[in-house]
Amino acid sequence: MSLWLEILVSLFLLLGSGFVLVGAIGLHRLPDFFTRLHGPTKATTLGIGGMVVASLLFFSFGEKGFSLHELLISLFLFISAPVSAYMLAKAAVLQQLPLAPKTRGKPWEQ
């Protein structure tokens, strides 16, 4: 494997793991369910996407063949993450989960 490919794979891995770290910190630090749901779903989707791109590059050029597994993983990820976040948010609105005092808007009072 060439040096440039290793650098590119390393860059995508670092970028992806940085996004995952930001999402994990957001999950830990944000005050209520709705803000905890928003931060990690966006950041971890980008983070896992970066890691999957690194895996796609590594295995496609390492084995001299295109790897479809990573494309299927990323397709499933980018379809299922927003749908599951929407379902969790809808269930939280129906349950009227408590909000932090700084959170603006109460969708169940409209």
From the spread of the alpha carbons, the general shape counts as elongated
Radius of gyration: 18 Å
Q: Share of helix among residues?
A: over 70%
Mean pLDDT over all positions: 84
How much strand? under 5%
Distance between the termini: 58 Å
Number of helices in the DSSP assignment: 3
Structural class: mainly alpha
Question: Keyphrases for this structure?
Answer:
elongated, sodium:proton antiporter activity, 76% helix, PhaG_MnhG_YufB, 110 residues
Give a summary of the structure in a few sentences.
With 110 residues, the protein is an all-alpha fold. It is built from three helices and no strands.
Please characterize this protein's 3D structure.
- Keywords: Membrane, Transmembrane, Transmembrane helix.
- InterPro entries: PhaG_MnhG_YufB.
- The chain crosses the membrane at residues 7-27, 39-59, 71-89.
- The chain has one domain.
- It is built from 3 helices and no strands.
- The protein is elongated and about 60 Å long.
- It has helices at 3-29, 33-62, 69-95.
List the helices and strands and how they pair.
Layout lengths: L2 H27 L3 H30 L6 H27 L15
Helix pairs in contact: 1-2, 2-3
